[in-house]
Known about the structure:
The structure holds 2 protein chains of 2 kinds.
Chain A: H1 3-16, H2 20-31, H3 36-43, H4 47-81, H5 91-94, H6 107-121, E1 125-127, E2 132-134, H7 135-140, E3 163-165, H8 171-179, E4 184-193, E5 205-215, H9 220-235, E6 241-248, E7 251-260, E8 277-279, E9 281-286, H10 288-293, E10 302-309, H11 310-318, H12 324-328, H13 331-334
Parallel strand pairs in A: 1-4
Antiparallel strand pairs in A: 2-3, 4-5, 5-10, 6-7, 7-8, 7-9, 9-10
Helix pairs in contact in A: 1-2, 1-4, 2-4, 3-4, 6-9, 6-11
Chain B: E1 2-4, H1 5-11, E2 12-13, H2 18-28, E3 31-38, E4 46-56, E5 64-69, E6 76-80, E7 90-94, E8 109-111, E9 114-116, E10 119-120, E11 137-138, E12 156-162, H3 173-184, E13 187-188, E14 205-208, E15 216-223, H4 232-240, H5 248-260, E16 265-268, E17 276-281, E18 287-289, E19 295-297, E20 303-306, E21 311-314, E22 318-319, E23 332-338, H6 341-350, H7 356-361, H8 370-385, E24 388-396, E25 404-406, H9 409-416, H10 422-431, E26 435-437, E27 440-442, H11 454-465, H12 485-499, E28 503-504, H13 524-536, E29 543-551, E30 555-564, H14 567-580, E31 588-589, E32 595-603, E33 606-611, E34 620-626, H15 627-633, E35 649-658, H16 663-674, E36 678-687, E37 696-705, H17 714-732, E38 735-736
Parallel strand pairs in B: 14-17, 28-29
Antiparallel strand pairs in B: 1-12, 2-13, 3-12, 4-5, 4-7, 5-6, 7-10, 7-11, 8-9, 15-23, 15-24, 16-23, 17-20, 18-19, 20-21, 21-22, 25-27, 26-27, 29-30, 30-34, 31-32, 32-33, 33-34, 35-37, 35-38, 36-37
Amino acid sequence: MDTQALQQDALDAIASATVLADLDEARVKYLGRKSELKLALREVRDRETGMALNAAREAIESAVAARQAELERAELDAKLSSERVDVTLPAELLGDVHPRPRGHLHPTTLIRRDVEDAFIGLGYEIRDDREVETLEYNFDKLAFPEWHPARSPRDTYFLDANRVLRTETSASQIHAMEERKPPIYMVSIGRVYRRDAITPTRFPIFHQFEGLAVDRHITMADLKGTLLHVMRALFGEERRVRFRTHYFPFTEPSMEPDVSCGVCGGEGCATCKWSGWIEIGGSGMVDPQVLANVGLDPDEWSGFAFGLGLERAAQLRYDIPIIRPFWENDLRFLRQF
Amino acid sequence: MKVPMSWLREYVRVGASAEEIADLLSVATAEVNGIERRGPSDTALFRVGVVLTADKHPNADRLQLCTVDVGEKQPAQIVCGAWNFGAGATVAVALPGATLPNGITLERRELRGQMSEGMILAEDEVGLGTDHEGIMVLADGTKPGTPLTEVLPLVEEILDVEPTGNRPDLFSVYGIAREVAAIFDGELVPLSEAKPPQAAEEQLDIRIDDFEGCPRYVGRLFRDVTIAPSPLWLQARLRDAGMRAISNVVDVTNYVMLAVGNPLHAFDYDTLEGGRIVVRRAKKKEQLRTLDGAMRELQPSDLVIADAKRSIALAAIMGGEETEVSERTTNVLLEAANFEPIGILRSSERLALRTEGSNRWEKGVDPYLAGPASTLATQLLVQLTGARWTGAADVHGDLPARRTIRLRPERTNEVLGLDVPAERQGAILARFGFDADGDGFRVPTWRARDVTREIDLVEEVARFELSEIPFTLPEKDVSFGSLTREQKLRRVVEDALVGCGYSEAYTPSFPVTADTVALRQAIVPSLIEAARLNASVDNSGIALFEVARVYLAEERRHVAGVVQGGIADARWAVDQIYAALKLEPSYAQATEPYLHPGKAARTAEGWVGELHPNELEGTWGAFELDLDALTASAPEALRAVDVSPFPEVRQDLAFVVDDEVPAAALAEAIVEAGGPEVRDVAVFDEYRGEQIGAGKRSVAFRVAFGSHERTLTDEDAAAIRSRIVAVLHDRYGAELRA
């Protein structure tokens, strides 16, 4: 028996079947109990012939399955087409429009709007920039050193050699400063991406808001005051903010802001790991190198920048211990907001 | 970096408690994640004891019955299960009432008919190790009754410090001590430069072929090494710092790394071909079995340590198995080198091999550190292994000179927004190791990599003064404070959908569990997943929407929804979106990938319809619209039109037409034919039935006529109506129903 020819005949027959009945006929002919192939398989004595025959059998079986799905979909679609309605009719003539109680904005959006409002109150513009960034904007112009772990595909999603999913909204700083001369007062809000195992408390996608002020005579005191204002807008007037020294490639000096714990008021509790403070993001003075990278004279202009997570802020505001529900979209969660 | 407090206090004299140190380090240096405490919480009943008598327990063959002098009037009688000691041994004793780290409180109790008043301790019982082979035998000469804390590291407080990547100097106890000394103005104890006597002057054959990859190689030869376990204090420190104790030689290399931050390596000197060390790049196809047992394929970019014949270690990352120090080792070659960081990072990334050593090298280690590191290691090796130090070499190229950076004190104040007098700035910098030099400061060698510019000096002052900096707002004479049109309309759309009963979802931009990143081009598929999850937990009235980017040739913002019910529910929501944006949607019959082929419509900005039954069980509606296109089409300005004082005439007109003629086409023709007096056209009924005939249907419109000039008469209305009837008949063969 010529296995190859048999397989080709079978595949041709399967491809030319245009209704399920034809396909079934082909299936019986080539794969049925009395088919040439099955009979041959029963007679097999050596391994090589067996493997060849089985390969042919598998190829025919998968072709049948694929064609069957196609034909079923086509038959279903033909049936569905007969249920055609005139979609230009008003909604209420297309079927029942079910009355529904008011829906709910996602907690991330609620925080986003509060952030927007707080910064609009301070006279800042809101930016929503692209998420696919070039290495130039995501790293180089932000003065990321060559050794920085974020440059590694272990930490960052690379789309190709030159493009990544942005790892922080900081690329917006560069866009803002390239588009316009200072003064710049802006906050960029959007999705950022970092390779991370998915656990109840971690997800590789999250939202950041990142503020930037570039003007003459911007100081660290201005940064502290601005963040205090925003933290109070988000979490309540009684909150306090402290700063710890840190390191970020694109700011110098760099600091991490902590906000006083809202659960214990700063006395120390399980939520703040008994420190009275909760880590909330990163901040610092725009590194002179970053200013130089966009053609600004660091002796003339100075600026501050800070970035915080929307989900993190929502967790603190609404007492949500884990990240998972933010992306699960269970209405039992969403309907609480 | 785990920092045992007792070790830290060896290097810095400050009165501050561990908590105070943790608090200020967190603010000025690096975050302290916590303080771990090891050992019994109350050490009063842990004493040094001297065994007076030790005999077999009269009623138990495996037990000893001892009397132990614990500094009281009467010796204590203690039953013990270990036999590695006898009368005269100095031991560690816990007396009745003492609570062991495992929580058990000792009591006087009878063991096989003999009273036992306490416990002679093995190292695992006080958390000093894992050994339970026998009890700890202490060095002779300590007075019985001496508090055990004076002779054993019984308790420890351990800071868990998390240095940032730019501060390799903080990956050592001494580095942290330096910061503590600066912050608390305490005394930093200089590292001992005392070299033990060198017993011989053996020549070492060390060659660096690649000074770029290895600027410095200090080698030290030790003979007559006795490999043995390290003393308890050293084992305890390694363990407290998060490393395992292995044997004295290896432990010394790790101890010195933790102490000063320079990773070391020890070779079994007798296994080196030709007794030679060559630092070079790997040859093509060269292989090396590292001491974790894995065979590594090397590349010419990898830096290796080689002997006369072959590579023997992956430089800075891991030693080789064939030259590793073993129980049989008697001669040791100690390596205290310096390696360039980026190459080490690349090799360690490629080989997916990270070690305590590579973790430090890849951040950049001070090349001046190899000296003090080798000195400390030499002291310890001679002291702990009985070795003779017989050879030394220090091969290096030009080591970088200390750089002087200019600092304008007023610049510091401009950045900080705080007035820090120039003298105080100088004092702060001096405490961090920066020496005044003209109008600038000389950078200490251990900060050479991260302090290169004026702004870096400013940061040194800033981190010291962080809590002093006031809270102000920028003084600005511009404001950009308003949402853009796109941002306002996004809120409008979100709110419209919430009003329609939709709740907002956030779904991933790509399947995050997949290996490759396939960015989505539509939102509906992930909303279908979210709807499926909600259905699976029996949530009712499911209606979800999302506003997010999709990734086509360019990124576009889309708004999409999935709703339990059907096309009518989805259409209603889409109508409301358009209405909220002051737009008139125009729907056209369509086929769409996710939709039921007979119940799918397109608009200029997207699609809406019933989900294809293969997508999700049950009847669902769905829509996806290009939000950027919608907001671009939304009118920028509205102009009010006077309400006409003249009443409108309303008429119901029902037409019988072929099934295929869309209602929207008829409505459009009515407006066109009727002219400006047609104020409103709305379909209010669709009917099929025997009277109408097969393939046909009746579509009923409510039409309003009106004028701004006058009240329309019946004749006016009749004239408009007949124009409408004529056009619909001509264009679509529509017949007016009586």
